[in-house]
Amino acid sequence: MKKYNIALSVFFMALAAATFEGTQQLTAMESGLGPGSWPKVLSGILFVLGVILLLQSLWEHDQAETQAAPFNIRSVEFRRVLLGAAILTGFCLLLKFFGFIIAAAFMVPAVMRLMAEKRPIVLVGTTIGVLAAIYLIFVIALHLPLPQGSIF
Protein backbone atom coordinates (compact mmCIF):
# COMPACT_ATOMS: atom_id res chain seq x y z
CA MET A 1 0.00 0.00 0.00
CA LYS A 2 2.94 2.29 0.66
CA LYS A 3 3.96 2.56 -3.00
CA TYR A 4 0.37 3.30 -4.04
CA ASN A 5 0.10 6.06 -1.45
CA ILE A 6 3.36 7.60 -2.62
CA ALA A 7 2.20 7.49 -6.25
CA LEU A 8 -1.18 8.98 -5.33
CA SER A 9 0.38 11.75 -3.28
CA VAL A 10 2.65 12.73 -6.19
CA PHE A 11 -0.34 12.61 -8.55
CA PHE A 12 -2.44 14.82 -6.25
CA MET A 13 0.38 17.34 -5.82
CA ALA A 14 0.86 17.50 -9.62
CA LEU A 15 -2.91 17.88 -10.12
CA ALA A 16 -3.01 20.67 -7.54
CA ALA A 17 -0.11 22.48 -9.21
CA ALA A 18 -1.73 22.16 -12.65
CA THR A 19 -5.06 23.39 -11.29
CA PHE A 20 -3.44 26.34 -9.57
CA GLU A 21 -1.61 27.23 -12.78
CA GLY A 22 -4.84 26.89 -14.78
CA THR A 23 -6.63 29.35 -12.51
CA GLN A 24 -4.13 32.12 -13.23
CA GLN A 25 -6.19 33.20 -16.28
CA LEU A 26 -9.41 33.57 -14.29
CA THR A 27 -10.42 37.13 -13.56
CA ALA A 28 -9.81 38.65 -10.17
CA MET A 29 -12.24 41.05 -8.57
CA GLU A 30 -11.23 44.18 -6.74
CA SER A 31 -12.85 42.95 -3.52
CA GLY A 32 -10.34 40.11 -3.36
CA LEU A 33 -12.66 37.18 -4.09
CA GLY A 34 -13.39 36.26 -7.66
CA PRO A 35 -13.94 33.26 -9.90
CA GLY A 36 -10.35 32.15 -9.46
CA SER A 37 -10.24 32.40 -5.67
CA TRP A 38 -11.83 29.11 -4.66
CA PRO A 39 -10.02 26.94 -7.21
CA LYS A 40 -6.75 28.40 -5.92
CA VAL A 41 -7.71 27.73 -2.31
CA LEU A 42 -8.87 24.20 -3.09
CA SER A 43 -5.77 23.41 -5.15
CA GLY A 44 -3.62 24.67 -2.27
CA ILE A 45 -5.48 22.43 0.16
CA LEU A 46 -5.11 19.47 -2.22
CA PHE A 47 -1.37 20.12 -2.49
CA VAL A 48 -0.95 20.27 1.31
CA LEU A 49 -2.96 17.05 1.73
CA GLY A 50 -0.79 15.40 -0.94
CA VAL A 51 2.34 16.43 1.00
CA ILE A 52 0.84 15.04 4.23
CA LEU A 53 0.03 11.73 2.51
CA LEU A 54 3.55 11.57 1.10
CA LEU A 55 5.12 12.19 4.50
CA GLN A 56 2.88 9.63 6.18
CA SER A 57 3.71 7.08 3.50
CA LEU A 58 7.45 7.64 3.81
CA TRP A 59 7.35 7.36 7.61
CA GLU A 60 5.07 4.34 7.62
CA HIS A 61 6.46 1.15 9.16
CA ASP A 62 7.13 -1.72 6.76
CA GLN A 63 5.24 -4.19 8.95
CA ALA A 64 1.97 -2.41 8.17
CA GLU A 65 2.61 -3.23 4.50
CA THR A 66 2.55 -6.97 5.13
CA GLN A 67 -0.62 -6.78 7.24
CA ALA A 68 -2.63 -4.90 4.63
CA ALA A 69 -5.35 -6.80 2.80
CA PRO A 70 -4.56 -7.68 -0.81
CA PHE A 71 -6.12 -5.63 -3.59
CA ASN A 72 -9.06 -7.57 -5.03
CA ILE A 73 -10.52 -6.45 -8.35
CA ARG A 74 -13.44 -8.87 -7.95
CA SER A 75 -14.64 -7.32 -4.71
CA VAL A 76 -17.94 -5.49 -4.31
CA GLU A 77 -16.06 -2.35 -3.24
CA PHE A 78 -14.03 -2.30 -6.46
CA ARG A 79 -17.21 -2.67 -8.51
CA ARG A 80 -18.66 0.31 -6.65
CA VAL A 81 -15.56 2.33 -7.53
CA LEU A 82 -15.98 1.41 -11.20
CA LEU A 83 -19.67 2.29 -11.06
CA GLY A 84 -18.77 5.64 -9.48
CA ALA A 85 -16.33 6.29 -12.33
CA ALA A 86 -19.09 5.39 -14.82
CA ILE A 87 -21.47 7.82 -13.10
CA LEU A 88 -18.89 10.60 -13.34
CA THR A 89 -18.27 9.78 -17.01
CA GLY A 90 -22.01 9.93 -17.65
CA PHE A 91 -22.16 13.26 -15.80
CA CYS A 92 -19.44 14.66 -18.08
CA LEU A 93 -21.30 13.54 -21.19
CA LEU A 94 -24.61 14.92 -19.95
CA LEU A 95 -22.87 18.16 -18.97
CA LYS A 96 -21.51 18.59 -22.49
CA PHE A 97 -24.87 18.10 -24.19
CA PHE A 98 -27.49 19.20 -21.65
CA GLY A 99 -25.75 21.56 -19.25
CA PHE A 100 -25.00 21.50 -15.55
CA ILE A 101 -28.48 21.50 -14.02
CA ILE A 102 -29.76 18.51 -15.99
CA ALA A 103 -26.47 16.59 -15.60
CA ALA A 104 -26.34 17.21 -11.86
CA ALA A 105 -30.02 16.28 -11.51
CA PHE A 106 -29.03 12.80 -12.68
CA MET A 107 -25.63 12.58 -10.99
CA VAL A 108 -26.60 13.53 -7.41
CA PRO A 109 -29.24 10.81 -6.92
CA ALA A 110 -27.10 8.27 -8.80
CA VAL A 111 -24.21 8.82 -6.40
CA MET A 112 -26.58 8.72 -3.45
CA ARG A 113 -27.96 5.37 -4.68
CA LEU A 114 -24.39 4.13 -5.06
CA MET A 115 -23.87 5.03 -1.41
CA ALA A 116 -26.95 2.92 -0.50
CA GLU A 117 -29.54 5.67 0.01
CA LYS A 118 -32.90 4.24 -1.05
CA ARG A 119 -35.53 6.60 0.35
CA PRO A 120 -37.11 8.51 -2.56
CA ILE A 121 -37.93 11.58 -0.50
CA VAL A 122 -34.30 11.89 0.59
CA LEU A 123 -33.05 11.37 -2.96
CA VAL A 124 -35.36 14.01 -4.41
CA GLY A 125 -35.02 16.45 -1.51
CA THR A 126 -31.23 16.32 -1.43
CA THR A 127 -31.01 16.70 -5.21
CA ILE A 128 -33.25 19.76 -5.17
CA GLY A 129 -31.38 21.22 -2.19
CA VAL A 130 -27.96 20.71 -3.76
CA LEU A 131 -29.03 22.19 -7.09
CA ALA A 132 -30.69 25.16 -5.38
CA ALA A 133 -27.59 25.80 -3.27
CA ILE A 134 -25.30 25.63 -6.31
CA TYR A 135 -27.57 27.98 -8.24
CA LEU A 136 -27.78 30.46 -5.37
CA ILE A 137 -24.06 30.44 -4.67
CA PHE A 138 -22.71 30.55 -8.21
CA VAL A 139 -25.37 32.29 -10.28
CA ILE A 140 -26.91 34.65 -7.74
CA ALA A 141 -24.09 35.38 -5.26
CA LEU A 142 -20.97 35.08 -7.45
CA HIS A 143 -22.60 36.07 -10.77
CA LEU A 144 -21.03 33.09 -12.54
CA PRO A 145 -23.02 31.26 -15.19
CA LEU A 146 -23.38 27.51 -14.89
CA PRO A 147 -22.11 25.45 -17.85
CA GLN A 148 -24.66 25.26 -20.64
CA GLY A 149 -24.96 22.25 -22.91
CA SER A 150 -24.67 22.22 -26.65
CA ILE A 151 -28.27 21.02 -27.09
CA PHE A 152 -29.97 23.47 -24.70
From TrEMBL:
Transmembrane portions of the chain: 38-59, 80-108, 120-144
The UniProt record lists the keyword Translocase: no
Keyword Transcription in annotation: no
Keywords, ordered alphabetically: Membrane, Transmembrane, Transmembrane helix
Pfam family, one: TctB
Coiled-coil region: none
Domain DUF1468: 8-147
Protein name in the entry: DUF1468 domain-containing protein
